């Protein structure tokens, strides 16, 4: 009986996994097909991107300050506080910046995408669009996917810049001048780190968009189902972001070689 239940769970899991990657593949293919729905893309970019700017800025500022504070505490006994700027920059740009920005956006935007599409599902608006012959993936998923693919790397860049600035604000209280702080950046940073800091949020943005759309388009159970779907999308997106971050870090480590 236990084996039967376990087998059923595995079947459901792989079925969901197959549907998830099927949606991702169909979405990617439809990016290059007409119609492009430019107006819908602009609306989604504004809703998903600019509306998340404040929370990402706030996250970057205090994360940079905390990183600088911890680095100063650890480096001060060794008289190596000149390396604080480089440590803050490499940590935020390679890892914390993309991950923190993605998690913030997943909580704010991922749930919004799921709730919006989930509401359309339970009110049968999606079914009505299908009856009219509308390509649901092209009309609803692709604009959100493209918006996140562009918005999250830009938000991450803002987060990184503000975090480095926040690190200097904290370092200035420990008598570290701007030249000393900035001179530490190239000692730790490589060009590949900058590439990694942009590729990761692009992947995370795709994960947030596809997860939110997939869960939203499979919502059932009325208003209660929409709430459960939004919670599920945030948890699933967050877990996938952390898992993919590990594998992306390993891939870039191989290329660093």
Topology:
Elements: H1 2-30, H2 38-48, H3 53-75, H4 84-122, H5 125-131, H6 136-172, H7 178-183, H8 185-188, H9 191-217, H10 222-256
Helix pairs in contact: 1-6, 2-6, 3-4, 3-6, 4-6, 4-9, 4-10, 6-9, 9-10
Features of the shown structure:
single chain, 10 helices, mainly alpha, 257 residues, elongated
Task: Report on the architecture of this protein.
The protein has 257 residues and is mainly α. It has one domain (37-256). It is 85% helix and 0% strand. It has helices spanning 2-30, 38-48, 53-75, 84-122, 125-131, 136-172, 178-183, 185-188, 191-217, 222-256. Helix 4 (84-122) packs antiparallel against helix 6 and helix 4 (84-122) packs antiparallel against helix 10. The longest helix is centred in the middle third of the chain and has 39 residues, at 84-122. The mean pLDDT is 88.
Number of domains: 1
Question: What is the tally of beta strands?
Answer: 0
What is the string of helix and strand elements? Answer: HHHHHHHHHH
Cα shape: elongated
Beta-strand residue fraction: under 5%
The unreliable regions are none
Output the radius of gyration. Answer: 21 Å
The largest β sheet comes out as: none
Distance between the termini: 49 Å
Instruction: Name the structural class.
Output: mainly alpha
DSSP summary: helix tally: 10
* Percentage of residues assigned to helices: over 70%
**Average pLDDT metric:** 88
């Amino acid at each position: 009986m236990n084996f039967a239940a376990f087998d059923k769970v595995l079947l459901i899991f792989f079925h969901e996994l197959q549907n998830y990657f099927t949606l991702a593949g169909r979405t990617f293919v439809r990016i290059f097909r007409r119609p492009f729905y430019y107006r819908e893309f602009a609306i989604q970019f504004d809703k998903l991107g600019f509306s998340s700017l404040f929370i990402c800025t706030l996250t970057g500022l205090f994360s940079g300050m905390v990183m600088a504070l911890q680095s100063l505490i650890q480096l001060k006994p060794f008289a190596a506080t000149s390396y604080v700027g480089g440590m803050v920059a490499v940590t935020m740009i390679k890892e914390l910046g993309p991950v923190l920005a993605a998690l913030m956006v997943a909580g704010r935007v991922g749930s919004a995408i799921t709730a919006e599409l989930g509401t359309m599902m339970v009110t049968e608006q999606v079914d009505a669009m299908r009856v009219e012959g509308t390509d649901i993936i092209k009309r609803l998923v692709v604009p959100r996917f493209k918006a996140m693919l562009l918005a999250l790397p830009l938000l991450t860049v803002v987060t990184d810049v503000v975090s480095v600035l926040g690190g200097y604000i904290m370092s200035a209280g420990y008598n570290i001048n701007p030249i000393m702080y900035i001179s530490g950046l190239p000692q730790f940073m490589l060009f590949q780190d900058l590439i990694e800091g942009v590729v990761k949020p692009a992947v995370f943005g795709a994960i947030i968009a596809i997860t939110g759309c997939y869960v939203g388009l499979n919502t059932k159970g009325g208003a209660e189902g929409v709430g459960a779907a939004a919670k599920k999308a945030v948890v699933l997106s967050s877990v996938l972001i952390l898992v993919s971050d590990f594998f992306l870090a390993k891939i870039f480590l191989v290329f660093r070689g």
